[in-house]
Write a structure and sequence with these properties.
Length: 584
């Protein structure tokens, strides 16, 4: 997330690609190809166990279910990462460590977008020879349709961001392809021929190449689309295709025989099969990763018990990667729900929380630094600030009670939500509850599964308002590595949606909305970044959310897989595009 797990920049050491494994992984002379250790943090500096060896099965495990495997209906960062195996967007990020992981490169497109009209019009040409899994040609009309279905049918597909709906000319009036029965579709997306697509925007958008890296631009043939049920028969444009899919249980992918390496400089198509097992107990996921039997698809890091286990064992610690994920762990405050519609009540929450206890609950400093801003330090636009500073970051009961009094309250009863399959998030929420209780704010914990967190619970404003949900645990990474890519979907009032909402605070400040619009049309990077700093300050002055920690991930690196690199583009997760199986 996106949402959240969404694409993010990570400060992970060297910007140079340093190959940590043997260049002949199946040679096994130095052991890397056969599965012995590289070194701690090796995958944050380069590619571990580099190999072009084909064959075998790569298994992923996830503690819950993803929001969706449908590339047009997902907003978790790990699904943006994984979906590229079967869904090619116009642009994507080049596999690599450090700053190389943030390098934007053409994928389905032959080259970067050609802007005109001051950045209000963007034209892309597709590569030649592109085919779906059934051998039929991929056309620009399929990309146009993919954008229309993912952004303009929010009553059917509500889980991804809605940037295109916000910025395309006529986007506020178009009803989407399921209601619009004409062949023309949205007029502001033109396809003058089968390899050209042109986007016409309401305003200049200087970061549009980043926007089209979302899986929403992966082509979908209209004749094969059946709305929310498309997830059951996704048509592949990537190197793998679905062999089977059991909702809530398992997905199995096999080689797409009509994928042509000549049209794709990024993918290697190494394993014979890719298996995704769902709803696996988090501790079991860790156990299987340490045994070399699986990769944690969620990429959020090991559980607390496993963390202690790997950090106290030198051999196990050598197979870990600890990196910033360009993410913020925070708690959204529902600005539309009484009494939190009063800024003084929100400031009481800000001042009450002992952030050290939250950091400890999440696993300590190795899992994140204490946060005080919306933007993490490794996102352009960050400016050091702490509006609600307390001694040692442990909260200030007296000042919090002063704000509560200014709000006209001596006590508040509310609910706080957290994801039931994320033990550390639950522990952090529990620590917050204990802090708030000291000042008279009584919060009751409500747990919901991550796969439905945004569709049915925290991400549904009507639900939050009716169920007295004033506080919501959240984690967020940039949709792309800029202040806009981080801030837009969690702070812009126009981004609030009735389901799949990621602006959990329901924050709608006209000055912030206007600054976001100004920033994205500003060509000068320095000026644009200064606007992001202003937005951050305004949001904190309004106490719309409580920054908790600047997230760090501790990944256990399975030694039995090849081409493992912790990528900046996807929150420090391993890049899933070219992972293979090492020889035994």
């Amino acid at each position: 997330m996106r949402r959240s797990a969404l694409a993010a920049i990570a400060a992970i050491g060297s910007a140079t690609l340093l190959v940590a494994g043997c260049s002949k992984a199946d040679d096994n002379k130095d052991g890397n190809g056969g599965g012995s250790s590289a070194a701690a943090n090796a995958a944050t500096k380069g590619v571990v166990n580099t190999s072009d060896k084909k064959g075998g099965t790569v298994t992923y495990e996830l503690s819950d279910v993803p929001d969706s495997f449908d590339p047009g209906n997902t907003y978790y960062a790990y699904m943006y990462n994984f979906s590229r195996l079967y869904a090619r967007p116009l642009m994507t990020f080049q596999p690599g460590a450090g700053s190389k992981g943030n390098t934007l490169v053409p994928d389905l497109a032959a080259s970067k977008g050609a802007p005109s009209d001051g950045g209000k019009t963007w034209t892309y040409k597709l590569r030649s020879g592109l085919k779906y899994q059934d051998g039929t040609a991929i056309t620009s009309k399929d990309v146009k349709y993919a954008v229309e279905r993912s952004n303009f049918a929010r009553d059917v597909l509500s889980l991804g961001p809605n940037y295109f709906q916000q910025f395309l000319v006529g986007g506020d009036k178009y009803k989407g392809p399921y209601k619009d029965k004409s062949a023309k579709g949205l007029a502001s997306i033109e396809t003058p021929d089968d390899t050209t697509i042109v986007f016409h925007l309401k305003q200049a958008f200087q970061e549009f190449d980043y926007l089209v890296s979302a899986p929403q631009t992966a082509p979908v043939p209209q004749a094969k689309d059946n709305g929310v049920d498309y997830v059951k028969n996704i048509v592949s444009s990537g190197s793998y295709q679905f062999q089977s899919y059991e909702d809530g249980k398992q997905a199995v992918l096999v080689r797409n025989k009509n994928w042509d390496a000549k049209t794709d400089p990024l993918r290697k198509q190494l394993p014979d099969k890719i298996v995704v097992n769902l709803k696996v107990n988090p501790e079991t996921v860790d156990k299987d990763v340490l045994a070399g039997d699986a990769i944690d698809l969620g990429g959020t890091g090991v559980q607390a018990a496993t963390q202690a286990q790997v950090l106290t064992d030198s051999a196990k610690k050598a197979n870990t990667d600890n990196t910033y994920g360009g993410r913020l762990v925070y708690m959204a405050i529902n600005t539309k729900l009484k009494p939190f519609d009063n800024v003084a009540c929100r400031k009481a929450v800000e001042l009450a929380i002992d952030k050290v206890s939250v950091q400890t609950a999440e696993g300590g400093p190795i899992r994140g630094d204490i946060a005080s801003t919306v933007l993490p330090p490794d996102i352009p636009g960050y400016g050091k600030s702490d509006v609600y500073a307390t001694t040692g970051g442990k909260g200030d009961v007296a000042k919090a009670k002063e704000q509560l009094k200014a709000c006209g309250k001596t006590s508040i009863n509310t609910n706080i939500t957290a994801r039931s399959d994320r033990p550390q998030e639950i522990d952090a929420a529990t620590a917050i509850i204990n802090s708030l209780k000291k000042v008279g704010i009584n919060a009751t914990l409500k747990q919901y599964p991550s796969g439905k967190y945004f569709t049915d619970y925290a991400g549904v404003p009507n639900f939050a308002n009716k169920q007295n949900v004033g506080l919501m645990m959240m984690q967020w990474g940039a949709d792309w590595p800029s202040g806009y890519g981080f801030l837009q979907q969690i702070l812009n009032g126009q981004a609030i949606s009735q389901s799949g909402n990621t602006n959990l605070s329901q924050y709608d400040n006209k000055s912030v909305n206007d600054l976001l619009a100004k920033a994205i049309g500003t060509q000068d990077d320095t000026e644009r970044n200064s606007i992001y700093t202003q937005i951050d300050k305004q949001t904190m002055d309004d106490a719309a959310l409580v920054p908790l920690t600047y997230f760090k991930v501790l990944l256990a690196r399975p030694t039995t897989f090849t081409n493992l690199v912790s990528t900046a583009a996807f929150s420090g997760q391993y890049d899933y595009l070219n992972i293979g199986v090492a020889s035994k």
